[in-house]
């Protein structure tokens, strides 16, 4: 039993079973025992690897994308470059090389709740003098260029299961010998009326939608754009995509609360609808493979290989292959890229307008 398991058990015994959104929030963000509050989860010694950790090319291309957009900002107010959930700061460190080469002018802001990761970001990005935020709510009232790589997947979501009674919310309660177990509300949610066979699972990304609506309002009001890169599906559908990862392997999401990463696949169509409802323009989504190749991944790899030895060249080729793998579970296909912007941006680099 993990320390957070004991806290959850007491909460459930007192208040009853909790929704998946609350469970995810406690597992990931509990101030003393939450997953992100207590560790650096990235890399070979952690639990998973993200695209920026695979190759510097990923961050450099995102930086080139951002530089192209910043050059078109028309406001007299200095823009803010914002990264949501910056991990170790690897993406932004690599992006800054491209941004500085292009002469881009901006203030850097990082939205990060993990004290462990914030310390790594502060050290790695010290020369950029970033301003840290606990949430998007405290970002300045200025044009924003927001980068969110593997951010929306970790925001708390609700789940509902179709039963003969209707859509009943999935909750986390206590089973035999105090183990955590999934159960369902006895009464269905009257607001959910979608047709689906019994047993179908509907994931409602409540926190992701709220965050997207907030950011879209800001972009429409103050100007700017957002780039979201994450794994998920371009069209809405049914299915249980909740997953836990520990030690680079899938794990039981209820077995060790606070010790494993919890995510759900991003519903890009839902994010797009949330953005357009606030008056923002939507671009994409497109597969990560298409996005990176359109930005010149192969040309960047060739330039790096021209200065590399045989071993380094092989590593560069392996990184390109991994980032653009078009197989159904490969990063090139599973990961999607969505752009959201002020309506004045009729086009964003490497992303089609919708």
Chain-wise SSE layout:
Layout: H1 3-15, E1 18-19, H2 20-29, H3 51-54, H4 56-70, E2 80-84, H5 90-101, E3 107-111, H6 115-124, E4 131-133, E5 144-149, E6 158-163, E7 166-174, E8 180-184, E9 201-204, H7 206-222, E10 224-233, E11 243-246, E12 249-251, E13 261-263, E14 266-267, H8 268-277, E15 281-287, H9 288-294, H10 297-306, H11 310-324, H12 331-334, E16 335-341
Parallel strand pairs: 2-3, 2-5, 3-4, 5-10, 10-14
Antiparallel strand pairs: 1-7, 6-7, 6-9, 7-8, 10-16, 11-12, 11-13, 15-16
Tell me what the structure shows.
By secondary structure, the chain is of the alpha/beta class. It has twelve helices and 16 strands. Strands 2, 3, 4, 5, 10, 14, 15 and 16 form an eight-stranded mixed sheet that branches. Strands 1, 6, 7, 8 and 9 form a five-stranded antiparallel sheet that branches. It has a three-stranded antiparallel sheet with strand order 12-11-13. β2, α5 (90-101) and β3 form a beta-alpha-beta unit. The radius of gyration is 21 Å and the shape is globular. The relative contact order is 0.15. The model has no long low-confidence stretch (mean pLDDT 95).
What characteristics describe this protein?
single chain, 354 residues, alpha/beta, five-stranded antiparallel beta sheet, 16 strands
